[in-house]
Design goal:
This protein has about 280 residues and is mostly helical. It has a domain of about 70 residues: Homeodomain-like (Arc Repressor Mutant, subunit A). It contains twelve helices and no strands. It is flat and about 70 Å long.
């Protein structure tokens, strides 16, 4: 199920994201003490973390807080606005600034590890499309941090946009694969080992010439098995594959940096900020 952000009232959503004070409506008293926007957002995240996006509702959030759904509407207009707030709050868990002690490559690797862990802590976030960003401080702060790390690579604006889009999508795609793998056994009731045994074991009977038909795939699988060993746990192999793929991607960033050379006044993104909403990781890079 894909969910699009930004489906609520734009004025109220943006005001809540940036915590702008709201002008009281004539004849309407202010919110009663005991609840807050932050408390509601954290409760919503807890509901989604525990039971998934499908379980998220104003009623479920209210029950977690010991309140009715109606009690929440004084603070948050509805589920659409709440989802924007939850998404932005989760992305605020990422470091907001680069570590000055790291070079850009080590910095991106650390950022990618943090982002992967964040998505795996909150896998429901992966259902939120990147086509329309929420434009909140958490989301934009995560983007600013990645741009700050990549500044050391001295890429031109076009290469920088491409690198950001590729890195963000790589991390999200890797997290989606890992999250799906974790959920598969619980959802289907069939453990991974049993699933693979039931199907892979049939290949020897159905395709006795499998190695001849798919020699490259066979060689790759054999080399992977030899490197991993029979006792290597799947989560470690997943992380290793993530790190290996990231290293290949960063090799490409380094090659692009070497090809474009040092930034100049007309290429420096700080002096020529050729950026807009399309430069968000979900935009057309």
């Amino acid at each position: 199920m894909t969910v699009f952000a930004g489906q609520g009232d734009a004025r109220r959503s943006m005001a809540l994201l940036w915590r702008a004070p709201e002008t009281p409506r004539p004849g309407r008293s202010g919110p009663k003490p005991g609840l807050s926007v932050d408390a509601i957002v954290l409760a919503g995240i807890a509901v989604a973390d525990a039971d998934g996006m499908a379980a998220l509702s104003m009623r479920a959030v209210g029950e977690r807080l010991g309140r009715t759904a109606m009690a929440l509407y004084t603070y948050v207009p509805g589920k659409a606005e709440l989802l924007d707030l939850m998404h932005d709050r989760v992305l605020a868990e990422l470091p907001a600034s680069p570590d000055p002690g790291r070079d850009w490559r080590a910095g991106v690797t650390a950022w990618a590890d943090d982002a992967l862990d964040c998505y795996l802590r909150h896998p429901w976030v992966l259902q939120i499309s990147q086509a329309r960003p929420v434009l909140g401080p958490g989301e934009l702060g995560a983007m600013e941090a990645l741009l700050g790390i990549l500044r050391g690579a001295r890429l031109g604006p076009r290469e920088l946009r491409g690198a950001v889009a590729a890195l963000w999508q790589f991390v999200r795609g890797s997290a989606q694969t890992a999250a799906d793998a974790r959920a598969a056994a619980a959802t289907t009731g069939v453990p991974d080992e049993e699933w693979w045994h039931a199907r892979a074991g049939r290949l020897a009977d159905l395709a006795p010439d499998f190695a001849e038909r798919f020699p490259l795939l066979t060689a790759l699988e054999r080399s992977g098995a030899a490197e991993a060993g029979t006792g290597d746990p799947a989560p470690d192999r997943t992380r290793e594959a993530f790190r290996t793929g990231l290293a290949v991607l960063l090799d490409g960033v380094a090659a692009a940096a070497a090809r474009t050379g040092p930034s100049t006044p007309d290429r420096d993104p700080d002096r020529n900020p050729d950026r807009g909403p399309e430069d968000h990781p979900g935009g057309d890079a």
